[in-house]
Sequence to fold (255 residues):
Amino acid sequence: MEVFDIHVHTVTKEIKELIDYAKKLNVKKMCLLGDVLKYGYNQSEEQVREINNLTIELTKKYPEFFIGFCYLNPRNSKKFIEEEIERCILKNNLKGIKLEASVFASDKKVFLIGEIALNLNIPILHHSWNTLAMGKNPNPTCYQTDPEDIVILARNFPKLTIISAHLRGIDIRGIISYKNHENIYVDTSGAQPVVGIIEYAVKKIGSERIIFGSDTYYPNGRDLPVQLKAVEKSYIKTGDKEKILFKNFKRLLKV
Ligand SMILES: [Zn+2]
Fold:
């Protein structure tokens, strides 16, 4: 079964090895989200531009294999955010927006970005985690978005496609929160696989709203085959696996 991976980071241009490795696992396309942790959680405008420059460069160098999302820090100026979206999406063909942990998804600063994404008809992929399960974050500048924050964004923009990262991170709590919000999708990435969570998500929100993501952070980070096997070997129907592994990606990102 072919595989499209919506959640990949790279810190380097030397990425041929990753492409060859992924192809052996039948991965046909990867979506680059940028080296979002390079400068902490509150990047300057210059740092955001640098993160996106690498994504743009790689999508141009390997257009058949990579698509990319524009990374943004909602705490940057409105003028910069608008210019960076124009540069990345309209001029350089990136396909969506990636937000990490600079502010919560429920922050009004994200609403500006939500409005623009809606107008451009592109998705936002937002970091998310169940913070009750992880304890207090030791970094005071890191705003870990909980499923309830994603729901606030989704309620304010019911027509915006929001992809909540890390099914394993948001866990059962996230799935329950998202059940009635059709514009929220989840990617399968995050932490080590746990038996039953993919099956639970398929049962509660349906496979149409689940997209495979590995959270490969090349050259280190999460292991692609481990993340992939968690879906391939889960106890769900073949039709559901097809939607999660490639059909939903193709539909949402029009590739
Ligand atoms: Zn990630």
